[in-house]
Design a protein that fits this description.
Chain lengths: ~625, ~240
């Protein structure tokens, strides 16, 4: 610091004194002569130095942004010749001229970016949670069987690419739902679950064992005697009791595990008809799943006293074999087998249903389906295949034609929404799982895309203020999206890296695909074959294959697999849950899968509404 | 390793001795034709059996030593459909109708129905034909790629009577041991297997806790090579999935 010191002298001050007496006051005497001058007083002490310091200030100083000089002044109290900070009594600034900069725009480089704008828009328009118990008049639960996170991602990319986009930025219909979370899928006895246990959890709010339907974990799989007392009530049953309309749709057999868990109680998921059951189970009084579907109304009323229900209003899917007797005369016109039915008890459950519901309409093909007028139909039963319905990619090869999942969804809603009390519907895309088991990504992804279309149709046909829609999966598959393909690389193709135009080669010198499976049957090159199951009749071929001249984007290509198994397996990681409508905001975070029941119950107040309908016996 | 081929010879003479057979000589009639197959590779000899069953448009290939039977039928869409029975377990697996074009061809069906495709017979040189009606027999030979094949063919019954194949020190010999035309017995054979608990192939993956299916998942399903019948291209002609 530069200092400039100035010294000043101060003058001494001399003090004077006067005398007096206390006698009678006399006259004033004569003025005396002037006295002599006294001696000079002593010199006073030296005064304090007053110091001034000047300090140069750099550009950017807080007091002088353009730079300048700070002037500090004060007395040198300690006489050290310097103006210490404690001695400063006054400070002045002498600032240089300064023109301040304009304020910095922190987001200038990002504000106009399309990614930034899209996300900002999403955040600026949050969906307000509707958390009023019972606010949902309708509930629709969509289940993509085996639709794990990687399946959702790959399906999204494939659909985008089929629409001419790069793909990754595309969204499936439910990607745009405002609320989502994760569900832990394990069964009470299995780390990697099956559909029976997981769907029971979703429909009843109770996790249970793998392989059992609508019963708690206290049951022993395959033991009929353990069913009684362990039955769980489902969301569909509660909705039915509450007076809502109910519906079940599936592209699998309607007696398959996922749809069955909405209406049946069974010690084994495979007891789809009486011929599938051990004699002891039949003797002990257990009822096969198909029979439970047709007898749903009477069974529910028998199990819960004081209720009056009218049965499931809309049922569509596959699985005719479990409803028909093992008698060629009962074959449908489009039967696949010489004898379509499997039932060994001689019952024809289709005709039983028609007798029970004279107002109901039964259809077995697309023509019959299209002829249904939903506004004048109160009850619909559609069985479109002997076993599972076709893969979406293979639907055109069906003998008599089948409706798509989106068309079934639309028709069902148009029938169910005729009830002013609302409705509950479960829609399963059942064959995503089957295509994965066959190791055929094309089949799985095209079915997942069709599920997305069905969801979009449901959104279109329902009032968002009164309809809770949840989309989820029961479990995942060992299906991976791997490598470092460049943006927009065909999701079914071989990995082509960023900046490259030809496929990357692995360490074995051969190209590899983005999609693959950890286990299963492995490689098949079936060209235009759209039936994923066609690959089962070939020997297992796992490990690396030379894909150089193989069109991996063709429908009949089955991805490579590592571990040789006769069928690709489920996976144990969490699955996504996507929701919109009243109560949807309860879908948040990572939860046990059985939470989904409770979200539906809260949204539609199912338990309370059902309880209110009970009449004391 | 390329798997050897055909065949020769001899006829089981008792087969057509019964005149009653003649009137039942309908290639579409119920039948169980029992073959013994002998393979020789140098000093080593191996024998196995194969029974061809036909009934009401359906076909079965029974492999007794392996307790496996493959049952085929055309579905209403004209595609062959396979039910593979694991006889020892009394369980079966249903395959999806095979929609691969070659498998749906008449030639492929003839291969299932006769154990040798019409196209394969046509490729051989006919040597002689004798007998009439049901008893008609035709001899065929084929020399191809260093291999020699002899076929004795029963055209009216669409059955192989004898078949011999030789290439180097490998020989394979098929003999028709017996024919059962008891329609009730044949029907019962099919009915017994139809009654087995069956599972869709697409459902296998969801049944890992089923001991039988779990074994199938872990070991893979016995598919290729089950018949042991191959053509000169090394293709298994006992199956319909060589495409």
């Amino acid at each position: 610091m530069n200092k400039f010191t100035l010294a000043l002298m101060t003058a001494a001050i001399v003090g004077l004194t006067a005398c007096d007496d206390d006698g009678k006051n006399g006259r004033n005497g004569l003025d005396g002569q002037d006295g002599q001058n006294g001696q000079n007083g002593q010199d006073g002490q030296n005064g304090l130095n007053s110091l001034i310091t000047q300090t140069a200030l750099a550009v950017g100083d807080s007091n002088c942004p353009g730079g300048g000089t700070r002037i500090d002044s004060g007395l040198d109290s300690n006489a050290n010749g310097e103006l210490d900070s404690s001695e400063i009594t006054a400070t002045k600034y002498l600032c240089d001229p300064h023109t301040p900069d304009e304020s910095v725009d922190l987001m200038a480089n990002t504000r106009n970016n399309a990614w930034f704008q899209a996300a900002a828009t999403r955040v600026s328009n949050p969906e307000a949670p509707v958390l009023t118990r019972g606010a949902a008049k309708n509930v629709i639960l969509f289940v993509g069987d085996g639709m794990g996170i990687s399946t959702v991602t790959a399906a999204r990319i494939l659909e985008g690419q089929l629409k001419g986009k790069l793909g990754e930025e595309h969204n499936l219909s439910f990607d745009l739902f405002p609320f989502s979370g994760l569900a832990k899928t394990y069964n009470t006895d299995a780390q990697t679950p099956d559909s029976a246990g997981t769907m029971t959890a979703m429909m009843s709010g109770v996790k249970t064992d793998a392989g059992v339907i609508g019963v708690s974990e206290a049951i022993e799989r395959g033991d009929c005697s353990t069913v009684a007392g362990n039955e769980l009530v489902t969301a569909l049953e509660l909705a039915e009791i509450a007076g809502k309309s109910t519906g079940i749709l599936s592209t699998a057999r309607i007696t398959h595990a996922t749809p069955a868990a909405t209406y049946a109680k069974s010690a084994d998921r495979n007891w789809e008809d009486i011929s599938d059951m051990p004699a002891a189970a039949v003797t002990a009084g257990c009822e096969d799943i198909a029979s439970q579907l047709v007898n749903f109304e009477s069974n529910l009323e028998a199990r819960i006293s004081g209720i009056d229900v009218d049965g499931i209003d809309v049922v569509m899917g596959g699985g005719r074999r479990h409803f028909l007797p093992k008698d060629a005369s009962a074959n449908s016109p489009d039967a696949l087998s010489s004898v379509e039915g499997d039932r060994t008890d001689g019952r024809n459950l289709v005709t039983e249903w028609q007798t029970q519901y004279a107002d109901g309409k039964y259809v077995f093909d697309e023509t019959g389906f299209l002829a249904i007028d939903p506004e004048n139909t109160t009850r619909l039963f559609g069985l479109f295949n002997e076993s599972h319905m076709q893969y979406e990619a293979d639907r055109n090869n069906d003998i008599a034609g089948e409706p798509s999942l989106r068309d079934m969804t639309a028709k069902a809603i148009q029938i169910l929404d005729n009830n002013p009390e609302g409705f509950f519907m479960m829609v399963e895309s059942g064959r995503i799982d089957h295509a994965h088991h066959a190791g055929n990504a094309y089949g799985a992804l095209t079915d997942a895309i069709e599920l997305s279309e069905a969801v979009a149709k449901a959104v279109e046909l329902t009032n968002p203020e009164e309809t809770l829609i949840i989309v989820t999966a029961d479990h995942s598959h060992v299906f991976t999206i791997a490598g470092y393909p460049k943006r927009g690389n065909p999701i079914l193709g071989k990995v082509v890296s960023v900046g490259k135009t030809s496929p990357e080669l692995a360490a074995d010198g051969m190209p590899y695909t983005t999609l693959g499976y950890t286990n299963g049957n492995g490689f098949r090159d079936l060209g235009d074959e759209t039936d994923a199951d066609a690959g089962y009749d070939l020997p297992i071929k796992t490990g690396r294959q030379d894909l150089l001249f193989v069109d991996t984007e063709s429908p009949g290509y089955h991805q490579e697999a590592l571990v040789p198994l006769g069928s690709e397996t489920h996976a144990g990681e969490d699955v996504g849950v996507y929701a919109k409508g009243p109560g949807a905001s309860l879908v948040s975070g990572t939860n046990e899968q059985n939470l989904i029941f409770h979200v539906m119950d809260y949204a539609a107040d199912l338990v309370n509404a059902a309880n209110a309908k009970q009449v004391a016996p | 390793m390329p798997i050897p081929h055909f065949y020769t010879l001899l006829l089981s003479l008792t087969l057509l001795a019964n005149p009653a057979i003649a009137e039942r000589c309908n290639s579409d009639a119920a039948i169980a034709a029992h073959y013994r197959i002998t393979e020789k590779q140098g000093p080593q000899t191996r024998q196995r059996d194969l029974v061809l069953w036909r009934h009401d448009g359906r076909i079965a290939h029974q492999y007794p030593q392996r307790d496996i039977t493959e049952l085929w039928e055309y579905n209403t869409a004209g595609h062959p459909r396979l039910l593979r029975s694991f006889d020892a377990y009394q369980r079966s697996i249903e395959y999806a109708p095979n929609e691969i074009p070659n498998a749906a061809s008449a030639d492929d069906w003839s291969r299932k129905q006769q154990l040798i495709a019409n196209s394969q017979i046509a490729a051989m040189q006919q040597q002689a034909s004798r007998g009439e009606g049901c008893e008609q027999r035709s001899d065929y030979t084929l020399d191809e790629n260093g291999a020699h094949s002899d076929l004795q063919w029963l055209p009216q019954q669409r059955l192989i009577a004898e078949l011999h194949y030789q290439r180097g020190n490998y020989e394979e010999h098929w003999t028709l041991m017996s024919v059962n035309r008891d329609a009730k017995a044949v029907a019962a054979f099919f009915a017994e297997r139809d009654a087995f608990q069956s599972t869709d192939y697409s459902d296998i993956g969801d049944n890992e806790s089923d001991p039988f299916l779990s074994k199938m998942i872990n070991l893979g399903f016995i598919s290729h090579g089950a018949s042991g019948i191959y053509n000169s291209q090394g293709q298994d002609i006992g199956h319909g999935h060589n495409h």
